[in-house]
Amino acid sequence: MKRLLYGLMVLLFAVPLAAADMPLNMTQGVTEISGKVYDLHMIILYICCAIGVVVFGIMIYSMIYHRKSKGAVPADFHDSTKVEIAWTIVPFIILIGMAIPATKTLIAMEDPSDADLTIKVTGSQWKWHYSYFNEDVEFFSLLSTPAEQIQGSAEKTETYLLEVDKPLVLPINRKVRFLMTSDDVIHSWWVPAFAVKKDANPGFINEAWTKIDKIGTYRGQCAELCGKDHGFMPIVVEAVSEADYEQWLLDQKQLAVDAKAAAEASLSQTLTYDELMAQGEQVYMGVCAACHQPNGAGLPGVFPSLIGSPLIKGPVSHHVDIVVNGKAGTAMQAFAKQLTATEIAAVVTYERNAWGNNSGDVVQAADINGGGSTTESGPASDSATPVTLPATADQVEQAATEAVTEVIEEAKAEVVLDDLTMEELMTMGEQVYMTNCAACHQAAGTGLPGAFPSLIGSPAIAGPVDGHIEVVVNGKAGTAMQAFGSLLTPQQLAAVITYERNAWGNDSGDAVQASDVDGHGK
């Protein structure tokens, strides 16, 4: 019996001590918070091991010393007040003992006050955008793992899919506050070494913080299922000394000045068709192919094809406008702050001439910043107003505000309140749905379980029409459902609601008209 108890005591202390050195155990990280999280993890592990040793020790003892071959006779009793009190109080005390250190750690993790540096982290499919407050430094960070490794034609490195072109640079010994948000769907910024994992939700700001103690390179990734290329959204943080950080800031500001000068110089440059196509292909493969596919075919119902599409066949200025400013209500991002004028000109030229499009259009950097669109044979017959690439954050905001206002005014002017037939509503509704809704709820209305709800027989569909209209027009707070009241006309809203309530076997029979929608606030 003594040997058995001794063995159990050795097991009680040996398991947690050995676990601390196991490669699969939680790492201690390089911040004070990550150390607290690790200590909390080990405390809970000790408690769990102690409970396991006690429970299994009593079981083993009972099986050995109270077996039938030793003449044991089972006791005959029904209940014991003392035992019931004991097995209620003891677990309660254990839980309190676990809750106290856990609560202290959680409170510390959620306290971003008195930060020395604030950085806005914006997630986009599939990249991170970092903005340093009060420093006029911002940049996008994209996956840089070579395509050969992704395709399996080259040997993979230890940091496979955890490499970026521009890492986030942070100083050690300074408290850094993060403001997390998203441009499109829900992402999650996760760096295990910092014990920081916070969701980036569209339309919301979440806070987190860290204070790094050790110089080094730390890697993480998006920890939320944010789309088909979720695995290609890494995070790399370079922790440097405070002096090196200050020098890095100066270098970044100088690079911004040089980039602006280079952009202005590019306006006077005229590239050949071959040069634009070569550069355009590189840009396309780097920032566009993830959605529209390397062959331009897109993903039906989610990302439109660029092969012979209305965008390609339409005016060049409209094409430029979408690349520069994005398209509200869709997954199409604005690339004004991500690409230079030359890169935008090159990728537009490439898209209009690749995959058999062969439009002959050649777009130059000057066209992006105010010149007229041209073709190989001279000026294009495009009378639309050229799009200007904003040079500063204020200009971007002003241009975006003016564009949205113009769209709203045009939409109001073109509102049609005449009643449409069910067939007309369903036809228009399907077009609106595929453009604005299918990226989240899927072309078949099935949604993405856990992220975007299914629309097949859902409460929104089975419920009152007014409730459905309210959600589509004004969005739903606390979710990724945005308000479409400012993005679609009443006729389009009525059509897409009618479509959702009658497609995929819903067959509600409801036919919503523009006049039904027009009374709801936007």
Describe the structure.
With 522 residues, this protein is α+β, with helices and mostly antiparallel strands. It has four domains: 2-109, no CATH class; 117-262, Cupredoxins -  blue copper proteins (Immunoglobulin-like, Sandwich); 267-410, Cytochrome Bc1 Complex, Chain D, domain 2 (Orthogonal Bundle); 414-518, Cytochrome c-like domain (Cytochrome Bc1 Complex, Chain D, domain 2, Orthogonal Bundle). It is 45% helix and 12% strand. The protein is built from 18 helices and 13 strands. The chain has helices spanning 2-19, 32-65, 81-109, 147-151, 242-266, 273-287, 289-292, 310-313, 316-325, 341-353, 365-368, 393-413, 422-436, 438-441, 459-462, 465-474, 490-502, 514-518, and strands at 117-124, 127-132, 137-141, 168-171, 176-182, 187-191, 196-200, 206-210, 216-222, 234-240, 361-362, 374-375, 378-379. The protein has a five-stranded mixed β-sheet with strand order 3-2-1-5-8. Helix 2 (32-65) runs antiparallel to helix 3, helix 6 packs across helix 10 (341-353) and helix 13 crosses helix 17. The longest helix is centred in the N-terminal third of the chain and has 34 residues, at 32-65. The model is unreliable at 371-397 and 411-416 (pLDDT under 50).
